[in-house]
Amino acid sequence: MPISDWFKAREQRHYTTPTQTAAPSDVPDGVWVRCEGCKRTLYMGDLERELMVCPTCGRHHDLSAPERLAILVDSDSFDETDAGLRSADPLGFTSGKRYADQIVTAEERTGLAEAIVTGRAAIGGHRVVVGVMDFRFIGASMGSVVGEKVTRAFEMALSERHPLVLVTASGGARMQEGMLSLMQMAKTSAAAARLSRAGVPFISILTNPTMGGVTASFATLGDILIAEPGALIGFAGPRVVEQTIRTGLPKGFQTAEFLLEHGMVDMVVDRRELKDRVASLLGYLAEGE
Amino acid sequence: MARRFVMEFERPLAELEEKLAALKRIHVAEEPELAAEIEELETEIGRLHETLYAALAPWERVQIARHPERPKTDDYLAAIFTDVVELHGDRFAGDDEAMFAGLATLNDRRVAVLGHRKGRNTNENIRRNFGSPHPEGFRKAERIMRLADRAGLPIVTFLDTAGAYPGIEAEERGQAIAIAECLATLSGVRVPVVVVGIGEGGSGGALAIGFGDRLIMLENAYYSVISPEMCATILHKDARRAPEASACLHLTAEDLVHLGLADTVVSEPRGGAHRDPSLVFGEVAVVVATALDELCGIPAAGLVEARYHRLRAIGQMAEPQE
User: How many domains does chain A have?
Assistant: First the structure.
């Protein structure tokens, strides 16, 4: 399905956030949703016009990869690469659920082959290589395929000398692929380092949530780090930190704003201004490319 | 036998050994009928020794890897290196004692050494945060990687951490970024990198100094994407199912060889490295020296290229034929 149809088709799909409210009986399902931030009931059409940012409280609701691409890249500019790369189950991982089944369920649920979509595109007229993660696919955790597609995106940006723009959202390394997943952190970081040494720009956009092995590898190796408002970004999950220190967490801990305050990201950018900001940065960084 | 710490799975053996020790305290000359009983007990202990350690389950190896008396980075530094010079501080905020960084000589080869550092007692462990580094530890390690690169010193690392510390300050000071910088730098250093898994290889905190041109694993060391307890908690909301999770994660030295990630496994004395550390030190010294001999002949550019391809090949997936 073309990217432009994704918004139109939203009503037919299942979403976890924002939550669908019990609609009046004469209104089709999914027209009214509850904002996860201010708990107000919103008309889906209004929310979509604001790129899934609550017009009342500014809450940035999660986007699927196709939705993200639709609002980030120039229309009709996206050309997907490595679309057929799919996860195997190298360890035969079964503990409770079978990993092989989880993959199938995620594919069916999202219509995607894996937790990241990569390709060539243009942003504000600048040629870029782009990659967008989709949290609905097993928490967009990084296993062999995500690591491979991210690495190929770095390599494509390097060989074509086009800037790389990645939009991250991930629970971290995918435990169902064990050490093969952990090593994707090193693999992607090595590819990021090569791109950096070659002087090709890399803009990393951290969205809700970006945690664990993804934050601790390629996601934070960008020349510019942009975070979306309110996004949870960190290494250890908040519950793990809470259990370790055995006290409450400070307000706003691990949010985009917390990271900005501690000097860990360049900027926090409202989604409705994101594309223009990225285009502007590309103008500065990609001048010679 | 003056063992102070008994692992869960060793308990039946420890009980028999205690009983034997108690019997031996009685003078056999006074109670001649005890001699037969002692002999019988000794045979049983011998038999149990063999069966207990013959085919260790992954979870049992994890326990051995965490054994408080297991040889640590400091012990390897003292046993196999000479002229050890410790280097302190990250040049930003502090010096993290959970991470050793320094220069040392192995036989007559000068190298840089990095290693997670657990303590030998409670005081040391508190200072060293039980071997779990903060960002300062990773930034110190990254600084020494760059120094080694400039000075042309091969890097030898020792892995022994439950993981990077998950605390508020660690997050505030950029734990994730500090690890990511280590990964980026280590991937590109123009000197050989030899990694030795000596105990725990806990996730990103281990990986920060945990990949290179050779990965040598001690037989009972483990290396894992997530701790077995955390994995069990996520899957079953029950950390007590860690033994099952350990098997699923394929985290043992042998598993890593099968996955194509580890090059060499150093065997340990029956029951674990703590039973006879000198044996293990000798073996590790030989294996590391051999790896360095092999790698030091390779030109820098080839080394970096080979390391990239080594990483590049990691991953198993289904790719449609074009």
Answer: 2
